[in-house]
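Inputs:
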Amino acid sequence: MSLIIRYISTCLYVPAFVANANAAPALLTDTGYTLFIVILKGIVLLVMVTVFLYTIRHLIFTLNRLFSAQRHPYLDVDTADWPTVTVVVPAHNEEDVIALAIEALLSVDYPADKYRIIAVDDRSNDDTWQILKTLEGQAPTIISAYHRTEGKPGKAGVLEEVSDLIDSDIMIVFDADYIPGRGLIKQLAAPFFDAEVGAVMGRVVPHNTETNLLTRLLDLERAAGYQVDQQARMNLHLVAQYGGSVGGVRMTALRRVGGWNTAAYAEDTDLTFRLLLLGFKTVYENRCECYEEVPEIWQERNRQIMRWSKGHNQVALRYVFSTVFSKRVRFLERIDAVLLLGVYLIAPLLLAGFLAAITLYMLGELVFMSSAWILVGFVCFGTLGNFAAFFQLAAATHLDNSGARIRLLPLNFLNFLVSLVNVSRATVSLLFNDIILDRELRWAKTSRYRKRSRDETL
Amino acid sequence: MAALILIGAVIVCALPFYPALYEWLVRSDATPLVVVREQDANIRHFAASFFDQIQVFYTEHNIDPINPPTPFRGSFGDNDDASFIGAEQKPEFTDKQKRNRRTKEVLISSGDLMLEGDFVFEKEIYCGRQLYAGSNNTYRAVYAGTDLILGPHSTVARWLHSQGHVYIGEHSSVYGRISSASSITLAAGVFFERLNATVIRFESDTLVNVSNILEENHQEKWKIPANAIEIDEKTLLFDRDLQLSNKIEVRKNIISKGELFLGEGCRISGNLKARREIIVGESSIIRGSLVCEGDIRVGRSSLVMGPIVSETRVTIDADCVIGAPKIPTTITAPIVEIAVGTEIAGTLWASKEGKVVVENYETNVS
């Protein structure tokens, strides 16, 4: 290994070496050098093939969204004997936002006798618990305030703990900063009339878009992810993903798969795959829209994407083989599921591909692959902007009728580069810290930016 | 020369960033997307908005609906002309309107209203009480305070709402949202899109005798086939088509990855889902929902209490009961065909085309 590092260092830092590739054998034996080149070319080839596959995938999704019939089968169910629903709102130090979310949940259009809210204070250090108790006093038949002082911190721990308190058919999860519209609960409950539906996911829309460039880039990214990616998977009967908030789960299905996985970084993706393997579907409801806050500072964004990356890769390691060989999952779903599980592995692969290609170029070994190398560059650029292709971002803004914001597209390359590095870091961290060193999951809360005084709220 | 080429290259490379930097700094499209669209979910949204506008009109013109003034012409809202009819039962059209058989005025009546036939009403009509209209009329939108009766071959383009009973004459086309606070009756041959009422009847003004449907048939308990996969305590999954014999009683949710056929007189206390097609035999009772990626057909004299959702077509044969006034439900599909004699409580939404047919059963079976 040290020899290879020394070798790459030589390649990178001695310009004369570029002109004289024959110097290489001085550091490596002929066999070792050949093997080294074969490995590098193998990495480049792997990157090319993988990125090509993902480009095709995203192109299909985009074309499907732009030109095919759209599936919203449950959207029009507006009168029914509605199932019983419990909305769970986990909150950790959410005094600035929690009251607004609960007030919005109290004003939704859903039969009161079939609707409960469990607002969970997860060991807050601020006034979250006092606010929840006050709100509970205002609507005691609907709201149950729950104070959590022990157990695993984090959303999965909260959900697992309160699952035992829920006697309704459906559990709907909202983050404390989400503000639902009046009809949202019915829209999220409607798909559960389909016996095959195990979970439902709605669309989250950033509401702090005007803050800075980062929030605007994340707005583009979210639009592409939901408006194009998720809806296309819904249209094509592929694997729509449960995203943890603005979504619901059928309680009988949840119990059958063993509840929430508190050991998972991404309990939502974990649940999506456990339901899929059991025979349930996750459906996406593009018109079930709800506002959320996106990170306003890059450090927060980095932490968020690293957490997502770790969680997603954890799920990939856990379920990829069982998904591939599952008889209950359709063939096309299996292909999509594998590609879905692999999205966060693309970043480290791409980074390795860059390094391999540069090394090959410096060694003069990329000559016969030069056109392919250029192709890799273009494809990478066109495909990955936190894994949403740029054409997908453009399609999303078109579908949202928000044409001018697409001008920011070139700047999204910045977001892509930052994500590339952080997702790669997260993958390495998962490999060494979590798998090899077997360290326990550390939960990190996403910061809130909306400030609202408690007095104003109450 | 080299410097010029370099500058040119930099300009070309920087060109895509110009609109990006402009948008970043100017923020012409930085506001959050609008996510709450009340009109998406509420079938009566447009009718309620129009009613509010009428109240504003009454206030602006000091109109007391109990003792209305004599008819007059004025403006309505920002741009529209209006004709206030008052307590007169018929609107007074201008010569040009009579000649063209067309009006571009909003018609506002505080009492009963009678409209002649073969006329085009390009703007909304408000009627404080009952509205009777002749045949071959075309409407943009209509609001009636009590009953609303449209003659044969009528066309409604956007919406129609009545606080009382709605009757749509035969071979009419009612697009958009049709709603009533009590009941809607559609005659045979009517095309529709979205209907909502406590009770929706098709041609027949008589109630379907539910007791006949609910009559005890001595159902047999279902022997669960060996290929059933129990995916949760209430739900069975079948990898292939599933056919249930006549008079079978099932107390589970059933998912079929193929087609699902129910024999006559079945009793299902659960939700049914099939990927390809669902056919419910006549005189069956489904207490849950019917959901299918393909067609759904409900046989004659059946009762379904849950929503019926198809991604292609729903066909309801004669004398069925779907939902109940106290437990309204929804039928939704791109194409919906309902046979006369059926009764639905709740919402009926055909996103492409809905039609009232005289008798599905015989025509389709033959």
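The first strand of chain A starts at residue 85 and ends at 91. Flag for discussion at group meeting.
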